[in-house]
Amino acid sequence: MAEGDPIAARIALGGRSLREHTARGTIINGAFSVGMAGLGLIRHLAIAAFLTASEFGLWGVVFASVTALLFVLEIGVSDKFVQQSEIDQETAFQKAFTVNLVWRTAFVLLAIATLPLFAQVYDRTDIILPGAVLALAVLGSALQSPLWIFYREMRFARERALHAVEPITGLVVTVALGAAGAGYWSLVIGGVTGFWVAGLVALRACPYPIRLRFDRRLFGEYFSFSWPIVVAAASGALTVQVAVIVGSQEVGLAGVGAIGLAATISRFAERVDHILTQTLYPAICAVRDRTELLFESFVKSNRVGLMWGIPFGVGLALFAPDVVAPVLGERWELAVGLLQVFGLVAAARQIAFNWPAYFLARGDTRPLAVHGMITFATFVAVGVPLMTTEGLTGYAIGIVAALMADLSVRAYYLTRLFSGFEMLRHSVRSIVPSIPAVALVLGTRLLESGERTLAMALAELSLYAVATAAATWFAERDLLRELLGYLRGTRGAPQAA
């Protein structure tokens, strides 16, 4: 792509081509974000060691109650800010900041007002106070809006450094309070503290004065752009709510805790993919009318994401029994099966994981609404009846059914966007490297005898990691060399891009 004035004025390229800058940013931010996502995983694993399954389940009810209406916040303010090309960026930011702050303040009031209703639904009045406190984290997140500025300009180092404040602060506070015996309150206070500290730091780093600017026209633009995003987010939120409500009645708080733990750990892979997508989004917006370049970025970013996501998800399925008992304790044994299923589901969800970003960049957000409604309807039709008869097993089957619907919708819309796109061929290349690693681990287990030990599990995990790395290099060495070339600063691709 020609690096003319519009792109140079929009993005801080630092003398590089947009392709090189994006590739370097993806690699650097991906590695950085893996570390931050790892902190989040450590945070939940560490606190799980201090909490019982019932306490974790109560936290799940509190969290679900506060986030039940979180879809209301998904109006795409940051996406729209990155997309816009106003001459006066200071004013554009202040307008977007105002929309975001007003919207999130209204959400906090709404969330607190609805907590008594959720207390009646769950028959747990003890969720009201911690829920009200947790809702304040949303205001802290609103103060992090200045990060959009660095994000739009693709100043990744600055943006990621500011992003790191929340997970680091949250980890320290949560684990410290958990060790002190604060129970589920450690998760509540740790979460709120992390967001507020990060928000205050972001305000201090903002290059523009913080002002409130109201613009009715802008609210109208956000509505037309955002209602499908809200519908998609609402579908996801309703899926969580239905699972928690039905689960609390059919499998109890311990079962809800198992669902929450499995979802938290499996989201580790998805969170990394989310960060990779966010890294690419400003560049996608810059070339949204160049379909051939969009397709190139889509294919390569997905191959990079699948290199990580599939081995992690499959590895979780293989080694979940070895993690639960020694790390979390025997009281979490009921979560083993769910962890294994969620691992495989998380791996499959990496396929075309960043497809929404391409429709957002083009302003075509309706496919997101259709996707959300279909996956929600599938879970309700399959998962809810089975949960009432089969418990956690029925929930797992419902999640798998929703996954199949999810992938089918993705394939349909991507085929329309990218002529000649084939989901199966797109996926197989990245799945193949995990096959020899899985075969080696399962073959080793067939030769084992006696009681399984931690040393045996660690040896198999090492074998799995080495085999996966070797197979990935063999299958994707050309792409990896290209990306490493970008990281070193060598120009491995045409400079017009």
What does this structure look like?
The protein is built from 21 helices and no strands. The chain has 497 residues and is mainly alpha-helical. Helix 15 (336-348) runs parallel beside helix 18 (392-417).
Could you provide a short overview of the structure?
The protein is mostly helical.
Helix-strand sequence: HHHHHHHHHHHHHHHHHHHHH
| Structure classification | mainly alpha
Q: Assess the beta-strand content as a share of residues.
A: under 5%
Distance between the termini: 4 Å
Break the fold down into its secondary structure elements and pairings.
Elements: H1 5-10, H2 18-48, H3 53-67, H4 77-83, H5 89-122, H6 128-135, H7 137-142, H8 147-152, H9 156-163, H10 165-179, H11 185-205, H12 216-250, H13 252-286, H14 291-328, H15 336-348, H16 355-361, H17 366-390, H18 392-417, H19 423-431, H20 434-447, H21 454-488
